[in-house]
Every structure is written in structure tokens, then in C-alpha cells.
């Protein structure tokens, strides 16, 4: 069966015409799904009962179930563990900022990229998420919190560009005027560096922010942290980032997780400056989240601040990521793995 919540308005209109229903019903149903964010077909108030039954019989209806929710006692960040229809689980995070509420969503169940500092990849890739499953992370959180989401980060479990077609459909639907109409300028998509997909994405002329998970300044160091570096060299990634900026006019963001004694030296700061200076970019320094399966240690606070200062003195735009939800398994993949091990016990 087709997935009702993954259909665009045009596709939904065509489906209803084939069912012998009037066109205006498509707009009503689409609004219930993507504006009112109903959790079941039965909640669609002005849809005839007979049509509701047809929808139930002919379409899948995605509605994620909250398996677990943790709320930080420090900053009100909420970490959600959602159960999917096939029994898999994904994580999302709701964060409050002065400029508005942000949700970080997952794009896959698991991940096959193998980055050594990330808990999401430890069990490999299970499957891609459908557009509806990405959308519904936002919808379910909006309904649960009763608050509007104004910013989206596709930076949770999974490599978004490894689920490229579903990602594009999600981006189109979440920014569509007939849905939540969230500005693409308020959406960030992260990638570990799938170079062909970065180039392909640049041709889409979207207004999203692209965040490259860089995490090292040389190919040798990056290979020790990220297997993808064995396929795509930093020099080629920088060219792709430049092409993305020239094509879209959107500044690139570099994510740089600081690991004690691995990528936080004075030499690393100098090399990162050299990489960043030719590009219109922003560097986001991230204190790495230790995970028990690895022996990486985060850089000290003093070392992180010193690293930031070295970049700023060289004219680089840089921030230290504000840590939210530190007391609730805030890092990608941690809550899902903890839930899995608890169930196994």
C-alpha cells in the first residue's frame, strides 16, 4: 500500500480522483495530515466516514509511537525514542532556543558510515526512513509539546544523503506552503561527506544549510575517525563545498568534534584555518560525547576555548556548540542503544 503521509498534495489529488472523489477533498486531507498533524485518520473532522474507510483500506498511515521520552532538568531539552511500525526505533531531540524551538531528527534506522565517535553507527544500517517517518518526528513532538517548531536539523541517527530521494521529498513537504511551511533557511542537513551527493544537492538550488562533518584537518587523521575518508579526500570535499556555495549562495557549516589528543592541537587549528579561509563557512566546535564502546575522550574546556580563540584570531567564524540535554543521553544513538540493551536484558 502507498504511504498516505508521504504523498505530495498533487499526488494525493490524483489518488482521490482515481477513487472518484472530488478534488477539494485532497486539500482537506492534506491539511489534516500536515497542518493539524492528526495522529489517526479518524481525527479528520470534515472527511466523510466512507472516505475515511477507503483511506484506511488503501493506504498506510504513519503515526510514530513515543516509546520513551526523557526531559532534561537542566534546560528542558526533550529526547524522544519513537517506535516505528516494523518495531524499529529512532531518536529525535526537541531543543529550546531564544530564536525558536528546534527539532533534530533521524533520517535512517542505524547508520553504515562507521564514524568511530558516534553511537548511531555501532549496529550498522537497518533501513532508510520514509518521508512520512521523518515528517512525523516533527509532528509528534509538536503535538506532544504543544509548541511550534521553527528550526529543523537533520543530524540525528543516519546519514541523510545516504537516503537522498526520501530526504528531498521530506525537505519539499516540510517547507511547502500547504504544510508547516518551515523556511528552508531554517533547515540544516548534515553529511559525513558523500561527495557525489553534495554535488547533486548543490544542483537542487535549495536554501538549506549544509553541514559537513569534518572532524579532522588531514586525510590521514580523518581516516582514523571516519571510514568515508578512505573514499573521498578532504581536498575534493572542499571543492564540492565551494561548488555548493557558488550554486546556492548558502554558507557551509563545518562540524568539528574535538577529541582529546587526536584533533585538538595547535597544528590542527592552523590546518583548519587553512581549510576554512578560502570558503564562506562557519565552524561549529563540538565537545565529543564519550561512548562506552570507544576510548575517545573529550578535550578539556580550556583546550576547546583555546582552539576557538586560535581560529577567531585568524578571522574564522566559529562557535562552540551549546550542550543541551547532557543529562538525558543527548548524543545521537545513545538512547536507542540503551533501550535495546534494556530490552535484551
Can you put this structure into words, describing what you see?
This protein is α/β, with parallel strands linked by helices. It is 35% helix and 20% strand. It is built from eleven helices and 14 strands. It has helices spanning 9-18, 24-34, 49-58, 131-145, 164-174, 195-202, 219-225, 234-248, 266-276, 301-313, 334-344, and strands spanning 2-3, 59-60, 65-71, 78-83, 89-97, 100-105, 108-110, 125-128, 151-154, 187-191, 209-213, 252-258, 281-287, 318-320. A ten-stranded mixed sheet has the order 3-4-5-6-9-10-11-12-13-14. A two-stranded parallel sheet has the order 1-2. Strand 5 (89-97) and strand 6 (100-105) form a beta hairpin.
Biggest pleated-sheet summary: 10 strands, mixed
Taken in chain order, the helices and strands follow as: EHHHEEEEEEEHEHEHEHHEHEHEH
Low-confidence parts, pLDDT < 50 over ≥5 residues? Answer: none
Radius of gyration: 21 Å
Helix fraction? 25-40%
N-to-C CA distance: 36 Å
Which whole number gives the mean pLDDT? Answer: 92
Q: Structural class of the secondary elements?
A: alpha/beta
Sum this structure up briefly.
35% of the residues lie in helices and 20% in strands.
Structure characteristics:
alpha/beta; 14 strands; single chain
Task: Summarize the topology.
Layout: E1 2-3, H1 9-18, H2 24-34, H3 49-58, E2 59-60, E3 65-71, E4 78-83, E5 89-97, E6 100-105, E7 108-110, E8 125-128, H4 131-145, E9 151-154, H5 164-174, E10 187-191, H6 195-202, E11 209-213, H7 219-225, H8 234-248, E12 252-258, H9 266-276, E13 281-287, H10 301-313, E14 318-320, H11 334-344
Parallel strand pairs: 1-2, 6-9, 9-10, 10-11, 11-12, 12-13, 13-14
Antiparallel strand pairs: 3-4, 4-5, 5-6, 7-8
Amino acid at each position: 500500500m502507498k504511504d498516505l503521509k508521504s504523498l505530495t498534495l498533487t499526488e494525493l489529488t490524483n489518488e482521490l480522483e482515481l477513487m472518484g472523489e472530488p478534488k477539494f477533498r485532497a486539500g482537506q486531507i492534506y491539511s489534516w495530515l500536515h497542518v493539524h498533524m492528526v495522529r489517526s485518520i479518524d481525527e479528520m473532522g470534515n472527511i466523510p466516514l466512507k472516505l475515511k474507510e477507503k483511506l484506511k483500506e488503501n493506504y498506510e498511515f504513519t503515526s510514530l509511537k513515543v516509546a520513551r521520552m526523557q526531559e532534561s532538568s537542566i534546560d528542558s531539552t526533550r529526547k524522544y525514542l519513537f517506535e516505528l511500525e516494523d518495531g524499529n526505533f529512532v531518536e529525535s531531540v526537541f531543543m529550546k532556543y531564544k530564536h525558536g524551538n528546534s527539532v533534530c531528527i533521524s533520517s535512517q534506522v542505524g547508520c553504515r558510515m562507521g564514524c568511530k565517535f558516534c553511537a548511531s553507527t555501532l549496529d550498522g544500517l537497518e533501513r532508510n526512513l520514509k518521508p512520512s517517518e521523518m515528517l512525523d518526528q516533527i509532528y509528534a513532538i509538536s503535538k506532544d509539546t504543544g509548541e511550534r517548531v521553527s528550526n529543523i536539523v537533520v543530524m540525528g541517527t543516519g546519514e541523510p544523503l545516504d537516503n537522498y530521494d526520501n530526504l528531498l521529498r521530506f525537505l519539499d513537504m516540510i517547507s511547502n506552503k500547504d504544510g508547516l511551511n518551515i523556511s528552508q533557511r531554517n533547515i540544516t542537513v548534515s553529511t559525513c561527506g558523500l561527495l557525489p551527493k553534495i554535488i547533486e544537492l548543490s544542483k537542487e538550488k535549495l536554501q538549506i544549510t549544509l553541514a559537513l562533518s569534518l572532524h579532522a584537518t588531514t586525510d590521514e587523521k580523518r581516516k582514523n575517525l571516519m571510514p568515508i575518508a578512505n573514499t573521498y579526500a578532504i581536498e575534493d570535499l572542499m571543492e564540492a563545498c565551494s561548488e555548493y556555495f557558488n550554486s546556492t549562495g548558502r554558507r557551509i557549516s563545518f562540524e568539528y568534534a574535538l577529541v582529546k589528543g587526536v584533533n585538538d592541537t595547535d597544528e590542527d587549528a592552523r590546518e583548519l584555518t587553512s581549510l576554512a579561509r578560502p570558503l564562506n563557512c562557519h565552524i561549529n566546535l563540538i565537545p565529543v560525547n564519550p561512548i562506552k564502546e570507544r576510548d575517545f575522550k573529550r578535550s578539556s574546556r580550556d583546550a576547546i576555548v583555546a582552539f576557538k580563540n586560535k581560529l577567531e584570531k585568524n578571522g574564522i567564524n566559529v562557535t562552540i556548540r551549546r550542550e543541551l540535554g547532557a543529562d538525558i543521553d543527548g548524543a545521537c544513538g545513545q538512547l536507542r542503544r540503551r533501550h535495546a540493551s534494556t530490552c535484551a536484558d
